[in-house]
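Duplicate of earlier report; Major facilitator superfamily (MFS) profile domain-containing protein input re-posted below.
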Amino acid sequence: MDSDSAEEDIVLSRNGQRLLGGDGFNRRNDTTKYVFACAIFASLNSVLMGYDVGVMSGAIIFIQEDLNISVLQEEVLVGILSIVSLVGSLAGGKTSDAIGRKWTIALAAFVFQSGAAIMALAPTFRVIMIGRILAGVGIGFGVMIAPVYIAEISPSVARGSLTSFPEIFVNLGILLGYVSNYAFSGLPVHVNWRIMLGVGILPSIFMILALFVIPESPRWLVVQNRIEEARLVLSKTNESESEVEERLREIQLAAGLESEEKYEAKAVWNEIVNPSHPVRKMMIAGCGIQVFQQITGIEAAVYYSPTIFQDAGIKGNSQILGATVGVGITKTLFILVATFLIDRVGRKPLLYVSTVGMTISLLALSLTLSFTSAGKLGIALSILSVCANVAFFSVGIGPICWVLTSELFPLRLRAQASAFGSVGSRVSSGLVTMSFLSVSRAITMGGTFFVFALLSILSVYFVHTCVPETKGKSLEQIEMIFQEEGLWKNDGVELGDVERLVPK
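Output:
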C-alpha cells in the first residue's frame, strides 16, 4: 500500500523533473491561475484604448454633424490621441522605474478616465480636444507598461501568450466600441456620441479591483533591492522553490546587483542614444517592428472603416456601423488564434503569415476601391478585404509587436527602451490617422491603400532580416544571445518555416 501510494504521489513533469503528485499539481494549477489573473488585470487598460479607437470611428460621424467640425478638425481629433500618447509612453518608462509597474498601470487608468469624462461632457470642439489629449497621455502610459509588466511576471514557457493579452483586450475594446456605436446610433445626434464616449469610463471599476490582486513586478523589486518581496512574488508565479531561486539569481545578475560596477559608468538613456552593437540590434528589431505595425495602415482601417465602407458604396449610418461590427468581431477572433499559436510555433512564422497576408489584403482592397463600381460585388469585396487585413494583423504583427518589445531589451533598459519603441508606434499611428482623409482625397482611397500594401511588403523583408526568434527563452537568455554575431540568421526561424502553418 505504501509503495502504491508513493507511486501515485510521484509525477513526471514535462521536462522530466519529479514533482509530488498532489502538491505538484496544486501548485502548478495555483501558479497558472495566479499568473493568468495578473495578466488579465494588467491588460484592462488596453480595453480603454481599444474602446476609444473603436468608438471614435463611429462617434466622429455624429460629432461632425453636431459640432459642425471641418475635415481638418476631424483628422486632428482622431489622430491627436496617437501623437499625444507618446508623451505618456516616454514618461511611462521613467515613471514605472520610479514608482513601479503596478502603480503606473493605476496612473494610466486614472488619466485616461479623466480624459474620457471630459470628452463625454464637452460642449465644444476645444473642450473635446482637452479630453482627447488627457486620454492620449493615459493610453501612452498603458500601452507601454502592460506588456513590460506581464513579461516580467510570466514564466518563459507562457510568456508569449500572456504578453499578447493587452492586444487581445485592445481588440475586445475595439469590438465594444463598434457595438456601442451601433447600439446608440439611433439616439439624437447631440446625445448619442456623448453616451458612446462616456461608456468608456466603466472599466475603471475593474481597475480598482485589479490593484488589490496584482503584485509588483519581481524584477522591479529586485532593482529596488527589495529581494524578499521579489522572492515572495516569484513563489506565486513559479512552480518550485528551486525554480524561484534560479529565477531570482538570474534577475539579480541581470539587474547588476551582483556585478554593479559593469553598468555604473553608463546612464540608461545614454546607452539607448549611443548603443553598443548588441543594444543597437535590439533597438532596430524592437523599434522597427513598432513602426511597421502602424505604417501599414491598421489604424486607418479601424478608425476610418465607416468612411472606407461609405466610399465602397454602403448607404446609411446603421448599415455602415453594422459592417464595422463585423470588422471588430474578425479582429477579436483572430487575436485569439495568435494567443494559441505564439508559444507553439514561435514569433517569426506568425509574423511571416501576418505580413504576407496583410500585403495581399491591402492590395485587394486597393484594386477593389479603384476598379469596381459601388455595387454589391464591390461592397462585398471591400468588406472581405478589410476583414482579411485586420485578421492577418491580429494573428501576427499586432500582438507580437508588443511581445517582442517587452522581450528583447535587458532589464536595465527594458522600461525606457520599451517607451522609446512606443514613441515610434504612436508617431507612426498619428501620422497615418491625421493624414488619411487628406491623402485619400488627393490620390483616392484605392491609391492610399496601395501605398500601405507597398509598405507591408517592406515589413516582410524587415521581419526576415531583423527580427530574432525568442520563443522559449528566458528574458535573461535573450539578452545573452544578442551578444552573439549572426543571431538573427542562425538562431531565428527562417521564411521557409512558415510552411508549418500552411495545411498540405
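Confidence is low (pLDDT under 50) at residues 1-22, 257-266, 486-504.

Merging into the original ticket.
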